Amino acid sequence: MKKLWLFSLAFFVLLPPTFPLAAPAAGERPEITPLRVVFVDVGHGDCIWIRTPFDGDRTNDRYRGYNIIIDGGNSSQRIVPLLNQVGFRWGTVVDWMILSHAHADHYRGLIGILRDFRVRRIVDPGYRSTAQAYSAFCWLSLIEPNSEFYSPVVGIATIPGLNSLGETIPLELDWGEELDVQILHSNPAVTDDTINLSSIVIRMAYDDVSFLFTGDIEGKYRPRGGFNDPDTPMFVEKFLLDRYVTEDNNLLQSTIIKVPHHGSETSSTNPFIRAVAPSEAVIQSGNLHGLPDQSVVERYEAHGARVWRTDRLDAGKRSSETPGTSHVIVVSDGTGYEITYFPDN
Ligand SMILES: [Zn+2]
Fold it and tell me: d(Cα 40, Cα 189) in Å, to the nearest integer?
């Protein structure tokens, strides 16, 4: 516990809070804050906290200051202390909560967030997993006061009281006018064996700096599972390439990619990486399932990307001991960015 306190203190000194503690005096401009994207080290699993930029003026239309959570990792108990560790304060309202797909290493933590924080909008790809904890996530989403639960993302909702966000993809999201945000993929028509292929894919651009959030999309079979060629994309990676990359347009290109599926061999085919052409590749994994696959790390490096890993200090530790040791934090003003590990050791 004492260690956690020291941790929090160090964080407070290194990264001042997003908002000033007290309301600014009349005439005084509040603090201007850049875009901040935190790839939270939840061990094996994904959790991303996005704090949208704030231009310092609460009276104009540019002010939004949204808090967005994409996935919550695999523990409803552990997620809130981990978010606190990276500066997510008690009382924060989550403006958008995105579940990329119905697997426990993505939704279990969202259950903890729904219990402890207020959430305005919840987005789910719409495949109804029969897992009990997924039902708990849906139930808490449905009863969350003053909130909208969008499921599926596109098309017609089949459950009374639920809505979708629109009829087609790409689908624009309003995360403040500083950001261009689009859902590029989401598909409820999967089975228990192919839930990864339902993953919501989001591209977010802040002027010159862009992000691609990919959930657990896949691009090929496992080496012994079927046709397997890292140069021939299949599944969602093929869909994205076919749909968004033409001779004179490439909507996939992104400065920073959340590497699909924890760096699994079944994702990140070479044509996909070539199209995204990331400068930074962030892998969210823990000491579990042998992920990331070394060949995937090498594929990104061969395409000139720097690889960042939330499991970089996990060797030799039990999977329960690794969360919180290597968050990856990106701060951007839209023209450039800084990317660092936190804690920085
Ligand atoms: Zn996963």
Answer: 29
